[in-house]
Write a structure and sequence with these properties.
Shape: globular
Radius of gyration: 17 Å
Number of helices: 13
Largest sheet: 8 strands, parallel, barrel
CATH superfamily: Aldolase class I
Number of domains: 1
Number of strands: 8
CATH topology: TIM Barrel
Structural class: alpha/beta
Distance between the termini: 9 Å
CATH class: Alpha Beta
CATH architecture: Alpha-Beta Barrel
Order of helices and strands: EHHEHEHEHHEHHHEHHEHEH
Strand content: 5-15%
Bound molecules: 2-phosphoglycolic acid
Amino acid sequence: MNRRYRKTLIAANWKMNRLPGDCRDFIASLREYAAGARWCDMILCVPYTHLPAAIKAAKGVKVAIGAQNCHGEAAGAYTGEVSCRMLADLGVKYVIVGHSERRAMCGETDEQVNKKLLAALSCGLRPILCVGEPLNVREAGAELDYVRVQLKMALKGVDERSLRHVVIAYEPIWAIGTGRVATPEQADRVGETIRETLRSVYGARAARGVSILYGGSVSPENAQQLFSMPDVDGGLIGGASLDADSLKAIADAANQ
Ligand code: PGA
């Protein structure tokens, strides 16, 4: 991380876990900690159903609430979908776009991810754009090219001013929920490539201000080493974020 130029972010991704009623106690247990944790911003991304409860519980707490998905259109005949305008209206600040689970399970394409990202920005939401390669791509040594393409496609039409609001999460698919974490060097190598790609499109100043997170089996045990790398500006944390103490321990690891 490099706090001179960018924010350190600790983002929890609850995925399809817990119930709306769990938000109150969970967020209350972060209240004091988050107030003192000046070295990082904390974000909690919950299912749609949990958002109102989470937003209510986070009033006066230094935890921003995020959604895990959104639709790319502003409104219309899209049964079951939720627009960015609806999320923003609730008080949501962040939205995860392009998570590999959605790309795999729902067939989300790079074009759709791009639409979602643009929709989020146009509504004042901060997208957390997920990129990352599957195992066979990593084994073929092609991960840097793979991530470069995902990144460029997702950011099509995003100008330099809007880039400031984008957060990028590098999440190698083989590391998500597997307990097989990337090494700090692997995470940093891709983080560096993401920043180089941003630099080539937006220039050095814009690129150095973007927070690039690592996600995939982050735990209290491995977080400090990961966060010590120059192009790892925090984490997107799934399994280990379901327990408030473990989330706090991961945020502690960013205090270096
Ligand atoms: P994990 O998930 O920490 O459980 O590996 C990370 C993510 O998918 O965002």
